[in-house]
Amino acid sequence: MKTYTKLIHALLISAVTAGNAIPQWIAEKSPVSVNLNSIALSTENQGWIVGDKGTILFRNQDAWNESAKVTDEDLYSVVLTGRESGWAVGSRGTILRLNGSAWEAYPSPTSEMLYSVSFRDYNHGYASGANGTLLNYSNGTWLVVNTSTRANLYSVTYLGDLCFIGGGQECRNVPLMKVDETANRKLVKVFDPDFTELKSLAISPNKNAWAVGHSGRIFYFNGNRWENAEAPDNLASLNFVGFSKEDQGIAVGYNGQILVYKGDRWEREESNIKTRLNGAAMEGATFYAIGNNGTILKSNQLNSNEIQDPVKPKMLGISPFPNPSTDFVRFTKPENTNDNEPIVMTVSNANGQVIINRSIQGLAQDQEYHFATSDLASGVYFIHLKSPSFTASGRFFVKH
After folding, report:
1. Are strands 390-398 and 314-317 parallel, antiparallel or unpaired?
2. 164: which residues sit within 8 A by CB, 6+ positions away?
3. Contact, 108 vs 142, CB < 8 A?
4. Is 311 inside any structural domain?
5. Contact 259, 232 (CB under 8 A)
6. Which end of the chain is more exposed for a tag (fewer CB within 10 A), N or C?
7. pLDDT tens across 199-243, in order?
8. Total structural domains within the chain
9. Which domain holds residue 327?
């Protein structure tokens, strides 16, 4: 047994110390530890997150802060219809409306779970939920739409004259459907996902569309028909897909899985966590992924030309030591960086939770800095430094 334990430690240490790979996703400090389910951004530095137990988080510039609770019900989906307007839906038919900077309860015609909400403009939207629930919003009122199905409708996406709905039901094949607004909002079958439970749908700006679900399946609508999409091998189940541009999208799911659509293909990115991810959002080059246990991850998706731009912060690697650590960890500020500039240091665990968040002043290039690890549990940790001139990342292992 001791030999087996030593082997596991050796493998972990090897994985941690091999190379100076720069993590593509960095954990941000979360004010809560509940499951976070959906995120919407109005700018790169402003947005909302909703989660279990009525959790609502707001970001304005530098940090995520908890907003005043309006309900104790779990919230599953949030959408913005403007910088100060939007909607959130959740358990027991809960509907909330953003009015300026405050959320307020809104009359709901159902007590069923509501999993998804989508708006094509300020005045027109849909919400979908459990047991075939579909609601339509117009003229200031939510009304029930007759769907003639008992399947759970996990996702609805609405843009222009297109509205797609997907879901699933145990041991049954539930088709992907389109809402025909010319025929009293009748649901029309448009694609057979072959017993795949669809968890999320998205329509791109050019009115192509994507669907993701269990077993890592991804489907694509090219404007005429739905078909299977090419994707990396051995994907875990996916919970969310979204697109901000025709060639820029994101999908997230179980085991910390993140896929980013770049130009014409899906690429897997390293999140450094195994936590279930439930939602994501993009605005400009800023990408977010959120999930269980208060997980908030951020990535700046810069292309190679942008990374070389001297105006933008340099992306560097650091090598914390000793590695593995028992009592403390040191790192050296990278060469060719500005002396005495303010630095924010964050340390996160393998679940994406920020354990240490600290401001560092007066550090010169090549100068060492150390912090205690004696109170940290054994395992893998990720360190990230951010300053006006550079960002740097590394990883280390704590062994007690």
Report:
1. parallel
2. 156, 157, 176, 177, 178, 179, 190, 201, 203, 209, 211, 221
3. yes
4. no
5. yes
6. N
7. 999 999 999 999 999 999 999 999 999 999 999 999 999 999 999
8. 2
9. 2-20+318-398
